[in-house]
Amino acid sequence: MAFDIDMIRARYEKLGTLVKKAREVVGRPLTLTEKILYSHLWEGTPSSNFERGKSYVDFAPDRVAMQDATAQMALLQFMSAGRSKVAVPSTVHCDHLITAKIGSSEDLATASTENKEVYDFLSSVSNKYGIGFWKPGAGIIHQVVLENYAFPGGMMIGTDSHTVNAGGLGMVAIGVGGADACDVMAGLPWELKWPKLIGVKLTGKLNGWTSSKDVILKVAGILTVKGGTGAIVEYFGEGASSLSCTGKGTICNMGAEIGATTSTFAYDESMERYLRSTSRGDIADLANGVKEHLTADPEVYANPDKFFDQVIEINLSDLEPHLNGPFTPDLATPISKMKEEAKKNGWPTKVEVGLIGSCTNSSYEDISRAASLANQAAEKFLKPKAEFTITPGSELVRFTIERDGYIKVFEKIGAKVFANACGPCIGMWSRVGADKKEKNTIVHSFNRNFQSRNDGNPNTYAFVASPELVTALAIAGDLTFDPNNDTLTNEKGEKVKLDPPNGDELPKRGFDVNDPGYQAPAADGSNIQVVVDPKSTRLQLLAPFIKWEGTDLKGLNLLIKVKGKCTTDHISMAGPWLKFRGHLDNISNNLLIGATNIFNEKINSVKNQLDGSYDEVPKVQRQYKAKGIGSIVIGDENYGEGSSREHAAMEPRFLGVRAVLVKSFARIHETNLKKQGMLALTFADKADYDKIQEDDKIDIIGLTDFKEGTPLTLALHHKDGSKDEFKVNHTYNAQQIEWFKAGSALNLIGGKK
């Protein structure tokens, strides 16, 4: 039987009534997205027709999921909320802190020793507050959620941007910062701006070398990394129905790379098959009873242009395998065009490593299709030219593929199997030689390929592809190899061609596992003690941020004016810094160390306005904090794209940065800044970005009359005595303004004004 089946049954029992009322309120047929949103309103029964992209709305999510890196800060905040138990079903998943280096068992043992303090903390907090705990090695949060918790028509939030993976099972699943998770676990409403809707109509059927991954790689090329910002993407059409449930999950997972709030699919037979295969036939039976409400109204898909803000159509029958990258997940290149693109751009074409797996592509179907190619390589006497690694998404998948012989197949071609964890996808990869910073190319089936993300080497050119294509390219050792047309020379000197991959959507003998790695919480956690050593370098209890002083902000120093792309990896790096995710003071030492200063074109080098010297960003900011001087960060487009990590907002807040002013924000990061009591501002005229000079003193005027919809004024006092003034915009509503005034949203929850 499924987890939380009574909650799911109760959700479905009222679904029809809520959808009917929403249809009356809106006055037209509804998309699937709208049905899920309107059936999860905090107010209960729908009474308002919300305006897309403008209305702030309170929701009541069904559940919360947290991974270990972000859970530390989320739970440290929750401990301040004064509750004895979480208000909604919640889970913690230990997947981010395991470094991939030698192999699964060795790496897991090392992580269990090195991270014991953190794992013990997360385990005890979970036990005390009624939170399900998934131990190290159990699997990656999003794969485990898909296998155990996701259900059609549900709504969940998770402290990781790839929470959206659960859309593969028909959920509206959204990545958030820990403060948002804290609110929901504390029994408070969760706020979201009512999203715009993008419809993607899929026709035809995948064939040959194409896979579900190629759908989202194509969409990323169309929409770019910010084209989905503020929108939910809803996939539909005969092509959508032809995809596996886990294939749908892959598409939704990487929807985070287009900035989408989330992505989702209508309930269909592939979801039913997956539910039954993962021992959740009871959910499938319940879903079948409300099936008409787990898809859009028929009129929507018949005339999508009338109901979506944007419609994209992709014919799966004509879709080519794609490689996206390097350095950005939206630079989409069909494999047939890679030869000319690589030559034109000077990309290294020798593939050094091929990596498959991760939360994006670690399903049984993914592994079996990749294994069919590994088997071909062995049978056709092809020795892979590149290193090859597999990162299973969960112990359920790993155990099953081992039982079915796939791991032995991979071992025939020299593959290394890492632990069931994030590993190289998030920079937790101890790659030999990466410290030499040599120019090289890797290919992987992960979701992100920002500079330095996977191995810390800024000169690693990382390309994103399907597991099948990654396997083929690792065998060939050549980025320009097109398996549709090219041949390879085997160890006998013969020309051979790889046949298209094949595999099973689900295991014929069913899934199997000895120990999935789950720890249920205590029925009564009142006597459980959660201890944090004051001398710890890994964990630190939180002190409330200071409330707003009630005046305009005058004389701010410019900390950094960022040039170009600035993701959360640039603001708060992962990799070796993950170990400090529960210690705000220590992790603040990585503040903006990956960002490029426009004034000197250097990374992690800014001018200290106290003495005119140049130093590392966090060191300069700590000096400003010690002197009681506030500062401001200036950024470019889509500032804060990438991970949901709220550390990217908490670190500048902790070190005394008062505002972040940019051309545009990624959704999650803007919300995180607001939650932490920061000013998140955008240029009313983007050209004003050019007016900001390195030695400026900056005022933010209008805060004493801070109102929803009313711009603020920025005054620049230049070193030569001249002055510039211009308007800056914000998206704060009345409640969010109260967060700012109180010092943070958490201060309001805990009454620490």
UniProtKB/TrEMBL annotation:
Protein name from the UniProt record: Aconitate hydratase A
Molecular function as annotated in GO: 4 iron, 4 sulfur cluster binding; aconitate hydratase activity; metal ion binding
The Aconitase/3-isopropylmalate dehydratase large subunit alpha/beta/alpha domain, residue ranges: 34-477
EC number(s) per entry: 4.2.1.3
Family: Belongs to the aconitase/IPM isomerase family.
Region of interest called Disordered, as start-end residue ranges on this chain: 486-507
Enzyme class: lyase
Organism: Leptospira johnsonii
Annotated pathway: Carbohydrate metabolism; tricarboxylic acid cycle; isocitrate from oxaloacetate: step 2/2
Lineage: superkingdom: Bacteria
GO biological process: tricarboxylic acid cycle
